[in-house]
Amino acid sequence: MIPYGSFIFFFLIGIFLLPTIVLGLLGKSSKIYNMLVSIVILAVIFGNSKTGAISIILFTIFQIVLIKGYHHYRKERNNTVVFCMMVVLAILPLVLVKVLPLLGLNHVFGFLGVSYITFKSVQIVIETRDGMMKKQTLPIGELIYFLLFFPTVSSGPIDRWRRFEKDVNKTFSKEEYKELLYLGINSIFRGFLYKFILAFLIYNKILVYLPDHATYIHSPFWANVAYMYTYSFYLFFDFAGYSAFAIGVSYLMGVKTPENFNMPFISKNIKDFWNRWHMSLSFWFRDYVYMRFVFWMTKKKWIKNRYTVSNIGYFLLFFIMGVWHGLEWHFIIYGLYQAALIIGYDYFDRWNRKHKLWPKNKFTHVVSVFITFNFICFGFYIFSGQLFK
Amino acid sequence: MEKQKVYELLAEVCQEDVVVEQPDIDLFEEGLLDSFGIITFLVEVEEKFGISVSITEFTREEWNTPNRIAEQLAERV
């Protein structure tokens, strides 16, 4: 069953989380109950496909062995080659799942959420490398709970282990839980509004007729322009709606899963946009790809110019992000487009600091938001694949 | 380690003197420091003060003001 895809799913969650809510309102910890009930809900989500279920079990065992093994190793030693091997191993299943079908090798592995679990696993390996897990014991039960946390298992938001683990082991007071419950239910209802009303209506009343079947627009050019803006809003409401469900249900379980969206369409530049759109993913790439690469290159001093290093970092980040969306041309070009925008904006920003030709005031702010909005929508137009049809 | 030295280094990285004048200013909310700035700062800290801080250690929640950054660094001397 696809999470948040049907009313039955919400009904099931509602019933299974009743004890969680009661415990929370009594000021008691529901950690053990939540961990047990997660197994049931995971079985509901992955139970329809035998191969999918076996895949996720094998995959989780593999990742746990890797994390625990590296954690153990890192207590005594810290070899860069071992670290790199661990990262490669953690990503390997995801790469195989994506690449094998392209080579004509059909396989039965792969399941919903494989990439999101990989993100979490890689994150723990990297933080272990940085010595952030030294004081931690990484209990297996909690690790599995983190990797397979059912509210976010299919499509995020991508949480961070140290943050997650703190929430899970915290017993909220009655008042604190009431606040969480309120925020959670609020978020779930925002999800209904976004995904089941707005995204649904935009898709079924407008998007399905675009760009080829719009009887009221005769020029293919304008039909595509209409498609571009409509698709952008559809994408936002659909994904922000899903994220609101995932965040809301997490809150009911005492986990403050990070936000994914913060009004992306009012971004004042492309950097601002990536701090507002699919935030848990972009922050993951920022912290674990861009920053690590730039830090490493800056220390090694292989390239003199710091901005060149930064630009290569952006290119890497968005290229990988594009490929991650899928090994199709439109995703890769979407990544390159975003990299070009950010590198271009960086140049402009540095130039403007020197020449001060684009002052900061209300007027330039509105113009900036308007320009950024159009660039964003064109990005989603590439992302939709419509450009290459 | 003197706090003032940390502030001055931050001012150099952010290219704004306001961080020396207002050590409790939120560097991220004000847009004074970004990923690139953090890296520049951490590399400088390693070279000048001999303190190495990993990127994952530098969380934007705990290292958000010049004052707090100086305190975090002082703990690691």
Largest sheet of chain B: none
Helix/strand/pairing class of chain A, anyone? mainly alpha
Broad CATH class of chain B:
Mainly Alpha
| Unreliable runs of chain B | none
Overall form of chain A: globular
Q: Please identify, by name, the CATH architecture of chain B.
A: Orthogonal Bundle
Order of helices and strands of chain A: HHHHHHHHHHHHHHH
Question: Roughly how much helix do the residues of chain B carry, as a percent range?
Answer: 40-55%
**What number of domains of chain A?**
3
**Strand composition percent of chain A:** under 5%
- Rounded to the nearest angstrom, the distance between the terminal CA atoms of chain A is 32 Å
Distance between the termini of chain B: 8 Å
Structural class of chain B: mainly alpha
Folded structure, characterized:
- The complex is a heterodimer of chains A (389) and B (77).
- Chain A has 389 residues and is mostly helical.
- Chain A has 15 helices and no strands.
- In chain A, helix 9 runs antiparallel to helix 10 (220-252), helix 10 (220-252) packs across helix 15 and helix 13 runs antiparallel to helix 14 (329-355).
- The longest helix of chain A is centred in the middle third of the chain and has 33 residues, at 174-206.
- Chain A starts with 6 loop residues before the first helix and ends in a 5-residue tail after the last helix.
- In chain A, 35% of the residues are buried.
- Chain B is mainly α and 77 residues long.
- Chain B has a single domain, classed as ACP-like (Non-ribosomal Peptide Synthetase Peptidyl Carrier Protein, Chain A).
- Chain B has helices at 3-14, 18-21, 35-49, 66-75.
- Chain B is globular.
- Chain B starts with a helix and ends with a helix.
- The chains are: A mainly alpha (389), B mainly alpha (77).
- Chains A and B meet through helix 12 of A and helix 3 of B.
